[in-house]
Structure formats: C-alpha cells, structure tokens
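Researcher: Good morning. I'm working through a list of sequences from a screen, and I'd like to move beyond sequence-only analysis. For each chain I'm collecting a predicted structure so we can compare shapes side by side. This is the next one on the list. No need for commentary yet; just the structure.
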Amino acid sequence: MSISVKGPAPSPGHAPTPVKAALAAFLGSMVEYYDFFIYGVMATLVLNKVFFTAADPATGTLLALATFGVAYVARPVGAFFLGHYGDKLGRKKVMVFCLLLMGLSTFLIGVLPDYNAIGVWAPALLVFLRLCQGLSAAGEQSGASSLTIEHAPMGRRAFFASWTLNGTQAGLILANLVFLPFAALPPEQLYTWGWRVPFLLSAVLVIIAFVVRRTLDDAPIFTDLEEDHKVEKMPIKALFRDQWRDIIRVIGCTSVGVVSSVTATFGVAYASKPEYGHANVVSSSTMLWVVIGANLGALIVQPLAAMLADRIGRKPVLITAAVGCTLSSFFWLSTLTSGNGWLIFLGQFTITSLFYSCYNAIWPSFYPEQFAARVRYSGVAVSTQLGVVLTGFAPSIAAAIVLKGEMGWLPIAIFVAVASSITVVAVLFSRETYNVPLEDLGRKNPRRVDLKAARTERVKETV
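Model: Good morning. Structure tokens for this chain:
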C-alpha cells in the first residue's frame, strides 16, 4: 500500500527540528566517543605500563585490552536502565545524563593514581570508571539516533541520523590527533603526566555539547505520546512482548561492529609492536595517522551512503557494506605486516572508509526504524548493547588468537569475516523501512510511501 509523503502538520509547539537534532547528536557522539576511543588508544600503548606494571609486556597489553572490553559488559545493563527511562521520561533527559556521566568518568581517569602509587587499587578503580563509561555509552547512540529520526522528514531520515555516527568518527579522529603529540614525549614524561592530559581535555568538549543538547526539544512523536497518555509504564516488558524478533535480528546485525574495535584498537598494537613476531614493524605514530586518515575518509563517505539509502533502501547498502567488510578484512590485516605505511593506509581505507563507514551511516536510522516509538529507545539500546559485547572484547580476542610470524593475522581475519557474515544474514531477515512513515514503524503491516513519486511531485510544485 502506498500513501502520499504529505502527512498531518505537526502539533503546535511540536515542530521537528532535524538540523538541530542532528547537530546535538553529532556533538554528543563526538564527545562520548572521543572519551571512549582515547581510552582505546591508551589501552594498547600506555595504560598497560601505568596500571599493569606487575605483568610482563604481552600480558599487560592483554589486561589493558580486557579493561577496554569491560565497558561493553556494562553496556547491556545500562541499556535496560537507560532505555527504560528514555521511553518513559523522554530521549533528551537521558541523553544529557549520558553525556555528563561519560565526561565525569573520563576526567576521573585522568586524575587516577597509577599502580606504583596505590597498587592493585589503581586497576580496580580504572575498571570501575571504565564500567561507568560503558553505562553512558549504552544510552548515547541509541538516544541520539532515535531522537534524530523522530525529528527528520520522511525520505531523509538516514541522512540526518548518519550524523550520529559522523560524530563517532569525529571523536575517534580527535582522540588520535590529541594523543599524537603526547605519544612523541619521552617515556618518563608520557607515563607520568603526558597520558593524563587527553583525558582531562574532554571536559571542554563536554561543556560545549551540554549547552547544545540542553537547548534541543524532545522528539515531537514522544511529546504526543505523553500528551495522549500512551507512554508505556514498563517499556522493556512491552518491548520483549511485542518485538522480541526484532531484538534478535538487530543483535545479529551488530556483529559487524568487531571491524571498528579491531581496526581502531588492536590494529595499532599489532603493526607497531615487535612481540607479535613479524619483521616489518612500523611506528605507533604512523598507525595513528593511518587511523586518522581512514576515518577522515569515512566522514565523507557516510553522508553519501546515507543519501543513497534514503533513495534505494537501507538493506542493499547494508548488505553490500557487510560483505565488503568480510572480504576486505583479509587484505587489511595482511598489510599490517608489510611495514609499508601507504599500503597499510590503503588496507585501512578499504575496510574502514569504503565498507564499514557505509554500514555505520545506515544503522542509526535502520535500527530505530525497526521499533515502534513507544519502545524505540529501549529497543535500540537493548538490542545493540547486547550485540556489541562481542565488539568490546574483539581486541582482546584478537590478541588471544593471533599467531607469531608474518601470517599470524590469519585467525583474526577469519574471526572478523565470520562476524561480518552474521550481519549479512541478520540484515537479510530484517524489514526494509526507508519508505515507511514514522508513525507506522514497528508495525507488522505498515503503510509504505512511493518516495520517487513524492519527490517528482515536490519538484513540480517547486517549478
């Protein structure tokens, strides 16, 4: 069934503000994931020597990577809690809470005494703050993507929602750029005070994002639910009762996330550390520039991929991207032992900029579109955070299965390829949503819009 793209006018005072919603999502995600990724960079290069000095180098790196994964264990817990209140109290309030929790946790990591000062309390407190970061991250992207599609016009939801993940990419780029000058410090300065500064600087970003996010109105569709007294008292219960199949499908879709954590975290260590047994080691600064360059490419590709998904559908773009990740994982990992910075960049660009970024661009619209508005925040939060536990431990899994020598990367490539293939299957069994009106999302038999005809009609009206 097709309908016109023209719907009822927004209620007075409930007018959507898609640009402002996208900006708030971009800045919030940038701050959250600057904090999140600065920890990932530090885990492989610094924190193993600051908080796990009692262990040998290889074990210390593995333990530091495990603390990176610990945050992902906290994320499902945070998803149930934050998703519940996001559907009960509103998207905006929970998103502000997430921002402040992440900012405070990151700042406290920056002032945390090291192992030499307080012994085992240092890694214990580090794990606690990392858990707080995980709780925060559980609600950030779920809320930002849900709020943005609920503000966005029909036929442009993917484009506006893609700025949530553009913020993530910007945070990753910023984290690496900020760390670069400190990575060049002499070891005694880096391991005493230098590593702390990037964590402390996050406070500036938090203030900027907080000001923007506080001025954003909540989603009009949620405000209407409040006024009509249709807000679920127990959103989680309604979610598992009515849309449990969608939860399973989205969990499967998230498997491709291992590409992000392996490329941004483990890849830096694997290419730059001699203990992995390959002859052609490159500097950690070279690898940081590789990550920065590839993610700059992603900033360009993601809005374009989202625009394509608004025209031809979410599923064709998502499946192409996941298949590309499956195949290019072998090429990317093989370049890490080459010792050639430009070849490594080509491999990273292929898997990150060309393929994974296309998936990144679409899921912020595709996942929320699987759920009805009354359980949307809970649905996205719970399903994605249950799914990304694998993502969080992917770097430590990679460190555990890697072999010595020039072909030691092969088990990791197989691991990444299998995870990406699971995503392909999950997307195939999910619903196409690009042409479904906002109020019909999550229904078994939704109405569908002929977007091509609607665009033609708008062009005629303009002329």
